[in-house]
Design goal:
The complex is a heterodimer of chains A (573) and B (183). By secondary structure, chain A is an alpha/beta fold. Helix content of chain A is 39%, strand content 16%. Chain A folds into three domains: 170 residues, Rossmann fold, CATH 3.40.50.970; 169 residues, TPP-binding domain (Rossmann fold, 3-Layer(aba) Sandwich), CATH 3.40.50.1220; 170 residues, Thiamin diphosphate (ThDP)-binding fold, Pyr/PP domains (Rossmann fold), CATH 3.40.50.970. Chain A contains 22 helices and 19 strands. In chain A, α1 packs across α2 and α15 packs across α16. Chain A is globular and about 70 Å long. The radius of gyration of chain B is 19 Å and the shape is elongated. Chain B folds into two domains: 94 residues, ACT domain (Alpha-Beta Plaits, 2-Layer Sandwich), CATH 3.30.70.260; 67 residues, 2-Layer Sandwich (Alpha-Beta Plaits). Chain B has 183 residues and is of the alpha+beta class. The two termini of chain B are 28 Å apart. The relative contact order of chain B is 0.19. The chains are: A alpha/beta (573), B alpha+beta (183). Chains A and B meet through β6, α8 and β13 of A and α1 and α2 of B.
């Protein structure tokens, strides 16, 4: 049974069929017919204040739920403003569908008002993109877009739709199947390889599990935990993988890499077998490549064949979905473990790893006179107990939060890992709160990134979203300042951020509460008050301006030669 | 050294841009590119000749295979394949060398497609190096104008005759990977 419907209505019908309940968007000229159709449609539209934040909010929604996030913008500037958010989703493999309006088909190429080549511009910013000029293609394309975004290695898909498609009418028949002959997803993993992998895991004397965002994306946390316990290997979670193994698990060693812990990096350096699961050997993890895990063989499991041996050659590659592959590995492990006998090397390995942990733990720095940024993160950790959704911006605060806040489940830690987009924290928290109305959602921002997204405070207020915005305010673009201090002779160039607005007045102007905290003694109470408040809350925490993030592997350095802390004064002889 | 890559892809708007985009994003200049539809009008076959740094080659083929519009991308450089190119050429030559030109053309299997008082238009096909030689020789007879068609290739491995093979194959390395059951 087909029905005569407008393109705009067909689009909304397809979205409903995909289970979309929320769109983050901003209207404009060519999307007028779409917004007219939305007027009496049950899908909720969250009106943000900038299209970039619509893309970030859709990511917050997607990252916290695993569902596809949807954002919408008009042609020209609306679409170009989405681009950063799309590239960000691409880098972190987040399923997002972006809908953009395009000028009427016959005007394309005529420099029409608000025309931009969105299809061309977003080609490399998306997993796939479409330009729809024919209303009859619309339903097929929309369902393909959702399928591509969510399946395989997830990613953003953009659908650019001309105004005449929204306005036109067509007989709509629900799409029952999609046809993508060139789209290949390998999920199962090779049986022989899986068996060999399990054998290697049991033979290794110094195994190390390196778990990344892929575990979170494939919802394979339970399967990972089982593997960790069967192999009994120390496990590091990358910045994107935090929470994939609960922070309180005895095998969890924290984060590796540039600002990873001593134990994690020493472990990665000295291991004889890296079990890499849903990771991409990012340069922020490996440091100088020829000094990364020089004694190790590599088992690499990933759903994307292009990740295998991209950076580090895999001795045993498995292409497949972790959710499907890990249970198979676990089954073989259970079968082989009784025959494996005593794994003597493993005991000594654990002793060594524990020693590294004790030697240089990630200990928070606390002062009586000023709030140390680490102190702030420690207090947030103490009050949230690994259960809150924490959305971070990009910079020093992101690293301290990753080091010191525990996450007992996946999808609680939301941050821009690959692209490192400043301004991400507040809008992603907005999206996460929309998706999780009853959960405590915290946005941790620096004073730099926060000021990139200030307008979204209005969105928080409009929709009654009780996000707790915590600004770790050091008056600097801290991470850049840190590098200028350490590597550019402390010539601080364009990193001072003066003129931070008074948070009481700022939040007050938007209609909710704000506060500045300056003394360590007030900190716990201020956080408790903010978390207990039923509405959004802006907390401006003044921290030590020149604190640096340690440990640190300088760019291009070897991970076993990390700088553990600021230079110590030489003791008098 | 030029690599020759053959792709079976959907005959759709933007498909070409996606493939060339992978190359331009990495700063590679395409030496030649040919594309035309296959027996199935919904698919097209593309042949690209491009010099890619050796360590990037396999990675790039994997990325081409990841493109939604690409059914199969194969590196034919080191695989059994026939690679041919078409050249159309005008030679301006004085009366006394006309016979010699026709003789040379015959040696290279070229056909005369137009003949005027000033000279000839010739059509030649062959492998790329052979055509380079042909062009060099013709240049010695006088002024020439050349349009090259770009490399087209067909693999000689029988399994590649399948129309919708999902798996990238080609180099020895890829075969080893296949044997080990990576994909």
């Amino acid at each position: 049974m087909s029905q005569l419907m407008s393109g705009a209505k067909i689009l909304l019908e397809c979205l409903a069929r995909e289970g979309v309940d929320t769109i983050f968007g901003y209207p404009g000229g060519v999307t007028l017919p779409l917004y007219d159709a939305m007027y009496d449609n049950p899908i909720r539209h969250i009106l943000v204040r900038h299209e970039q934040n619509a893309a970030f909010a859709a990511q917050g929604y997607a990252r916290s739920t695993g569902k596809v996030g949807v954002c919408c913008a008009t042609s020209g500037p609306g679409a170009t403003n989405l681009v950063t958010g799309l590239v960000d989703a691409m880098m972190d493999s987040i399923p997002v569908v972006a809908l953009t309006g395009q000028v009427t088909a016959k005007l394309i190429g005529s420099d029409a008002f608000q025309e931009a080549d969105t299809f061309g511009i977003t080609r490399s910013a998306t997993k796939h993109n479409y330009l729809v000029k024919n209303i009859n293609e619309l339903p097929q394309v929309i369902h393909e877009a959702f399928y591509i975004a969510a399946s395989g290695r997830p990613g953003p898909v953009l659908v650019d739709i001309t105004k005449d498609v929204f306005q036109g009418n067509a007989h709509y028949t629900p799409v029952t199947s999609i046809h993508l002959p060139g789209y290949k997803v390998y999920t199962e993993g090779h049986t022989g390889q899986i068996r060999r992998a399990a054998q290697m895991m049991l033979e290794a004397e110094r195994p190390m599990i390196y778990a990344g965002g892929g575990i979170v994306l494939s919802n394979a946390s339970a399967e990972l935990r089982e593997l960790v316990e069967l192999v009994d290997a120390p496990t590091v979670c990358t910045l994107m993988g935090l929470g994939s193994l609960g922070s309180e698990h005895p095998n969890f060693i924290s984060m590796p890499g540039m600002h990873g812990s001593y134990a994690a990096n020493m472990g990665m350096y000295n291991t004889d077998l890296i079990i890499a699961l849903g990771v991409r050997f990012d340069d922020r993890v490996t440091g100088r490549l020829n000094a990364f895990a020089p004694h190790a063989r590599i088992i690499h499991v990933d759903i994307d064949p292009a990740e295998i041996s991209k950076i580090r050659n895999a001795d045993l590659p498995i292409v497949g979905d972790l959710k499907r592959v890990l249970p198979k590995i676990n089954a073989v492990l259970k079968e082989l473990k009784p025959e494996a006998g005593e794994r003597t090397g493993l005991k000594a390995w654990w002793k060594q790893v524990r020693e590294w942990k004790e030697e240089h733990p990630l200990k928070p720095v606390v002062s009586d006179t000023e709030i140390k940024p680490q102190h702030l993160m420690q207090e947030i950790d103490r009050l949230t107990k690994g259960k809150a959704i924490v959305c971070s911006d990009v910079g020093q605060h992101q690293m301290w939060a990753a080091q010191l806040i525990r996450f007992n489940e996946p999808r609680l830690w939301i941050n821009s890992g690959g692209l490192g987009s400043m301004g991400f924290g507040l809008p992603s928290a907005l999206g996460a709160q929309v998706a999780n109305p009853d959960q405590l959602v915290i946005a941790i921002c620096g004073d730099g990134g926060f000021q990139m997204s200030i307008p979204e405070l209005a969105t928080l207020f409009n929709f009654g979203l009780p996000v707790k915005v915590i600004v770790m305010n050091n008056g600097y673009l801290g991470m850049v300042r840190q590098w200028q201090e350490l590597f550019y002779a402390n010539r601080l160039s364009q990193v001072t951020l003066d003129g931070f607005p008074d948070p009481v007045q700022l939040a007050g102007a938007y209609g909710f509460k704000g506060r500045t905290v300056e003394r360590p003694s007030e900190l716990a109470e201020a956080l408790e008050t903010a978390f207990a408040d039923p509405g959004p809350y802006l907390l401006n925490v003044r921290v030590t301006p020149t604190e640096n993030v340690f440990p640190m592997v300088p760019a291009g350095g070897a991970i076993n030669e990390m700088v553990l802390g600021p230079p110590q004064p030489v003791a008098a002889a | 050294m030029l690599q020759v890559i053959t792709l079976l892809m959907e005959n759709k708007t933007g498909a070409l841009m996606r493939v060339t985009g992978l190359l331009t994003a990495r700063g590679y200049n395409i030496d030649s590119l040919t594309v035309a539809r296959t027996l199935d009008p919904e698919l097209s076959r593309m042949t690209i000749a491009v010099a890619i740094e050796p360590h990037q080659r396999r990675q790039l083929i994997k990325h081409m295979n990841k493109l939604i519009n690409v059914l199969q991308a194969t590196d034919l450089t080191d695989a059994p394949a026939v690679i041919r190119e078409l050249v159309l050429m005008r030679v301006r030559a004085p009366q006394e060398s006309r016979t010699a030109i026709l003789k040379e053309a015959e040696i290279f299997g070229a056909r005369v497609v137009d003949s005027t008082l000033e000279g000839f238009a010739l059509e030649a096909t062959g492998d790329i190096e052979k055509l380079d030689e042909f062009i060099d020789i013709m240049r010695s007879y006088g002024e020439i104008e050349v349009t090259r068609g770009g490399a087209v290739a067909v693999s000689l491995e029988s399994k590649k005759l399948r129309l919708s093979p999902p798996v990238p194959r080609g180099t020895e390395e890829a075969k080893a990977e296949e044997k080990n059951g990576v994909i």
